[in-house]
Amino acid sequence: MDSVVNFFIESYSNTSYIMIFLEMIVVLFGIISVVYAKKENILVYPTGIICTVITVYILYKAEYFGDMMMNIYYSSMSIYGWWNWTRYKDDNTRIIITYTNYRERLIASLFFLITIIITYSVYLINSSTIYLENYIDIFTSGIFFVAMWFMANKKIESWIFWIVGDLITIPLYAYRGLGMLSLQYLIFTILAIQGYNQWKKSLVK
Asked: How many domains does the chain have?
């Protein structure tokens, strides 16, 4: 137990108070956003935007450009999701939870590949050396891209992608010394499992 506590304390020994405070805000609003997503509540998007915009700044300062690019995308996709969840379709009904079809899975695969290529290019431009952790970052960027797009369209498979991406990100952020964000993704994993089960029940109904 002491070693876990020491890990969180030591990882922030050289971090400014303002950055620690910003990271705490990110964790708080990130968790609130996922809770709203689980409940299919539109507030998932304004709270999520607060989380991702601050995260962009934190990751820029830490020079984790792959994650930074993804959070810029999250902010943009949150605006789209906010609009999509509140609009009415031709039959005057709002978007509902559904499974993905073949066309949507094909589009998601294309998004995954494009995201990996773009994120890899960003690392090439900004760094002379790409380490193993950066390749993991590139891979999870593709996963989270698809997860966010599925979420914006209320596809139940979004939770599966969130769970997989979160499980990979937990040790990645711990290794980078971002203890609070690592803990955040652990909580995200638990909430994502609950979200999947809750959306599945809604889908059955």
From this structure: 1
